[in-house]
Each structure stands twice: as structure tokens, then as C-alpha cells.
Amino acid sequence: DGGITQSPKYLFRKEGQNVTLSCEQNLNHDAMYWYRQDPGQGLRLIYYSQIVNDFQKGDIAEGYSVSREKKESFPLTVTSAQKNPTAFYLCASSMGGELFFGEGSRLTVL
Amino acid sequence: GQNIDQPTEMTATEGAIVQINCTYQTSGFNGLFWYQQHAGEAPTFLSYNVLDGLEEKGRFSSFLSRSKGYSYLLLKELQMKDSASYLCAVSHGSGNTGKLIFGQGTTLQVKP
Prior knowledge:
The complex is a heterodimer. By secondary structure, chain A is mostly beta strands. Chain A has strands spanning 4-7, 10-13, 19-25, 31-37, 44-51, 54-57, 64-66, 76-78, 87-94, 100-101, 105-109. The model of chain A has no long low-confidence stretch (mean pLDDT 93). In chain A, 0% of the residues lie in helices and 50% in strands. Chain A contains no helices and 11 strands. Chain B is mainly β. Chain B is built from no helices and 11 strands. In chain B, a hairpin with an 8-residue loop joins strand 9 and strand 10 (100-102). Chain B starts with a strand and ends with a strand. Chain A binds chain B through residues 31, 33, 35, 40-45, 48, 50, 58, 90, 92-94, 96-104, and chain B through 4, 8, 33, 35, 40-45, 48, 87, 89, 96-105.
């Protein structure tokens, strides 16, 4: 079945460590996105990519990095520069219409 | 600035009708989406409005007034499984309709 796969589902990190969240899609969508969700807040856009080898910062890109080497993959690295990384991270893709979301990755910094 | 407002919480009774409102102020408008999100899960698409008027899809309907910057999601014949958060999101700017601004979400509790 087509869809978006995020891994890991749960991740714990010590302060000062970088972690990478995986996002893979087999929907053949051109565009991919990373959103962050905090309790009581709406989803906020971190980075997005409309085409392979190109990506743009969203509203809260500081402390994060991405790459788009393949159409199917859009990994997100949460760096030690991100001051408050504990959150629910959602990857999504689209062909210019609705967003299709992955199941999410919950990151907790200890 | 860009802003989307929706009520934080709502409670309704099983079998009833509930209307969740959303107002928005954005630079540019390419359409408005409603998503449903159960706790700890990913959002799922419910509806999309780009023109004024009502879009009906089964028990769910969504309305848009672009001149008023206003939308609502109407849920009929409420079921317990409708207890979830409902996210209003606006596509803005040029081109890429996947670049959305989300409201904080409305948590709906359906009671027996």
C-alpha cells in the first residue's frame, strides 16, 4: 500500500546529541514537509522540499537540517542547537493538494 | 501577521450536531483544509474548500466565506469515535498548496 513511513516512532535523546528522523514515501509525490506539533499548539512548518535536491526553510527552521537526495526520502536532523526539541514531529507529502501525513515521531530529550 | 483562530475545546452529545468555527487572516489564500487528529496519531484529511459555499461529505460538511475569512466544520449524527482534535489549516502564498498554516486545533469530546 502507498503511504508515508516515519521512524522511529519514539526516540529519546540526551542533551547535546544530534538525532535524525526518517521519512520515506512511496506515493510518488514531489513535495515533502516536516511539521512540529507541541501540546496546545497548531502544527508549525520546519522545512519543506518541492523537488529533489532543493528545500526551503519553514517558520521554525533554526536548529534543524534536512536533505532531499531522493524523491522518496526527506530525513530531518534535530541538532544540539535546537533549544527545545521535545515534540511530536510529523512528515507529510503532497502533489499540490491535500497533505498526507506519516504516523509521527515523538522525540523526548532527557 | 498570519493568524488562524478556532475554539480550544468543545463538548457535544452522541447523536447531536456540532459546528466548529475557524477564522483566518493570512497573506494570500489558496484554500482551507480541515483535518481530524486522534490523540497520538497523524492528522487525516477531512475536507478542502477553495470557493465560497458548503461542501458536504457524508456526516461532515465544511463551509467557507472568503470575504469574511471564515469557515466552519459541521459534524452531524455525532458518534463516540468523533472525539478528536479538528485542525483548520489555510494554504497561503503562491504555488505550493502544501505549505499550510494551522490553527491550534479544537478538541471535541463526544459524551454518551
